[in-house]
Amino acid sequence: MQLKVVHMEEGKDPIAASRVGGQTRVLPQRLLHLLVLFLVLCFSFSIVSIYMIRYFGVNSVVTSWKPIVVPCNHEQATTLDQWIEPPSNLMHKMSDEELLWRATFVPRVNKYPFERVPKIAFMFLTKGPLPLAPIWERFFKGNDGLYSIYIHSLPTFEADFPPGSVFYKRQIPSQVSEWGRMSMCDAERRLLANALLDISNERFVLLSESCIPLYNFTTIYNYVIGSKYSFMGVFDDPGPYGRGRYNGNMLPEVNISDWRKGSQWFEVNRKLAIYIVEDTKFYPKFSEFCRPACYVDEHYFPTMLTIQASSLLANRSLTWVDWSRGGAHPATFGGSDITEEFLKRLYEGHSCLYNGQPSSICHVFARKFSPSALQALFLLAPKFLGF
Ligand SMILES: *[C@@H]1O[C@H](CO)[C@@H](O)[C@H](O)[C@H]1NC(C)=O
Ligand SMILES: *[C@@H]1O[C@H](CO)[C@@H](O)[C@H](O)[C@H]1NC(C)=O
Ligand SMILES: *[C@@H]1O[C@H](CO)[C@@H](O)[C@H](O)[C@H]1NC(C)=O
């Protein structure tokens, strides 16, 4: 007893120390047990896992995760619909790089395993509003399933088409584009790429806010869909505004003998649309060596497609425009210009080749019309435009 007490009293600190020491000695032992137990568990788990993987394959381990991730995609993943149905929301969040890449997916089997009704993609390249929208609304009416609409406007512009409009929610993610600059071609490629996401779009028409259709939908649809060639106005202009804009640094990709000029307002089929969207060969050359006074939107696609697919080009534009007044811009027509006599000029006295045969219908769209022309056009539409 005494010894114990003395021992305890004498060495308060040592006892305390030994207690603490005792605890520290006891704890590692418990920890050690726990650690060993843990290691054994880990080891057995590893063994079990390895056997599981050996006997059931890695998949069984992955499969156990699937139900957590898959359900919301389940419906899409099991049918062809996700590849046939056009995107429900045009305002996607893809960057241009992602979009162009996605748009160049091409089926390698020619026959479609579903009933595909070819559509015309009407691509409106605009600054903001569409003042001639009422004419287009009337034009498209009753032709659902044969067309789709895409609008590229200034990114700051907020469209307010009502839900019943054919233009409702047809805006695509847009960026600022300047006339005569590569940003204009970028906008056109963006329109094409978005339109390519709909597998049923077969022909792609570029239009501006000052364009009007010259015939009813059926006539234009048949004319465009039935054409063996794409309507890109392409010509070799030997003068200063044609070959004069060529830059020898574009060799070897672009030889001056390939250099073409053309109207910006094109129509291309799906194959050519993909050529344009996938291009990485000519783009850098035009981007670097065709800057004002070389207006790249007049040369890039006409030259590129002449090199890649000249036999598919009609070399003429579908869009009538009046350059007769001279100057850098074509004539714009307002309300007072829209007379019966003027409209006759649009329809009469034309001749061209359509699928190799002479035709009197050479243009099915026309520009440029100012907002003030709307009322007069609307009144004359049933008689002249045929709708
Ligand atoms: C479209 O125009 C053509 C030629 O003018 C005419 O024959 C046809 O009936 C019109 N179609 C419709 C749906 O209005
Ligand atoms: C450009 O094309 C012409 C005619 O096709 C050819 O004679 C000429 O050698 C080419 N120039 C270059 C630099 O390849
Ligand atoms: C268009 O012009 C190219 C030459 O640039 C030519 O090969 C092609 O046959 C022309 N297309 C038509 C339909 O005449």
From TrEMBL:
InterPro entries: BC10-like, Glyco_trans_14. It is found in: Membrane. GO terms for molecular function: glycosyltransferase activity. The chain crosses the membrane at residues 31-53. It holds the Pfam family Branch. It is a single-pass type II membrane protein. Keywords: Glycoprotein, Glycosyltransferase, Membrane, Transferase, Transmembrane, Transmembrane helix. GO terms for cellular component: membrane. PANTHER family: CORE-2/I-BRANCHING BETA-1,6-N-ACETYLGLUCOSAMINYLTRANSFERASE FAMILY PROTEIN-RELATED, CORE-2_I-BRANCHING BETA-1,6-N-ACETYLGLUCOSAMINYLTRANSFERASE FAMILY PROTEIN. This is Core-2/I-branching beta-1. It comes from Perilla frutescens var. hirtella (Perilla citriodora).
